[in-house]
Design goal:
Structural class: mainly alpha
Distance between the termini: 48 Å
Shape: globular
Number of domains: 1
Largest sheet: 2 strands, antiparallel
Number of helices: 10
Order of helices and strands: HHHHHEEHHHHH
Radius of gyration: 16 Å
Strand order of the largest sheet: 1-2
Helix content: 55-70%
Number of strands: 2
Length: 178
């Protein structure tokens, strides 16, 4: 079940993200979403640790203290906040960098799609916000990135998909003018 289950899960997820990216005005960016998950280092780790209810990276992390698939993935996909860490020239320390709006939009699409895939019929419009609030990602992101993502996740919870995707599309369009 691991091979076919993992392939089905990542492809179903990717297709949802592409659709959501289309709704937010970043369709071509969405077409490139998570292509590295089909690379051997990520794909076969995913097959090995596939469970169907959460990311295989979590299982690999439990077993080894890190996920080699994740280390490969985050360095190649700009919609992950972990990609946006660099050395501050003043402090000489690694610090989060504010993400461009188009990648925050893709991260939003990614989180909503992942929540729908893993929660299944238990998904609600607050699922992605709950996952965000219960995790520690916000503390590791640039404050402005975390604030923008939280704003959109709250909007999804309170106003639904249509209004939220339309709003994000406008914000992305405005950011391209700058």
């Amino acid at each position: 079940m691991g091979f076919w289950g993992h392939l089905k899960t990542i492809t179903k997820h990717r297709n949802k993200v592409i659709f959501y990216c289309y709704k937010t005005g970043i369709f071509f960016q969405g077409l490139r979403h998570d292509l590295s998950k089909y690379s051997p280092v990520e794909f076969f780790r995913g097959v090995r640790y596939y469970q169907g209810t959460r990311s295989p990276n979590e299982k690999e992390r439990e077993l080894f203290g890190y996920s080699s698939a994740w280390l490969h993935h985050k360095g190649r996909n700009k919609h992950h906040f972990e990609y946006w860490v660099d050395v501050n020239p003043k402090t000489k320390l690694y610090e989060p960098v504010e993400m461009p709006v188009k990648y925050v939009a893709e991260m939003f699409c990614d989180r909503v799609a992942a929540s729908k895939i893993y929660k299944g019929e238990n998904y609600t419009n607050s699922s992605a916000l709950e996952y965000f609030e219960n995790g520690n990602a916000a503390r590791q992101m640039h404050p402005k990135t975390a604030e923008l993502l939280r704003e959109w996740l709250k909007m999804l919870t309170e106003q639904g998909e249509d209004k939220t995707f339309n709003h994000i599309k406008k914000v992305v369009k405005e950011s391209k003018k700058k």
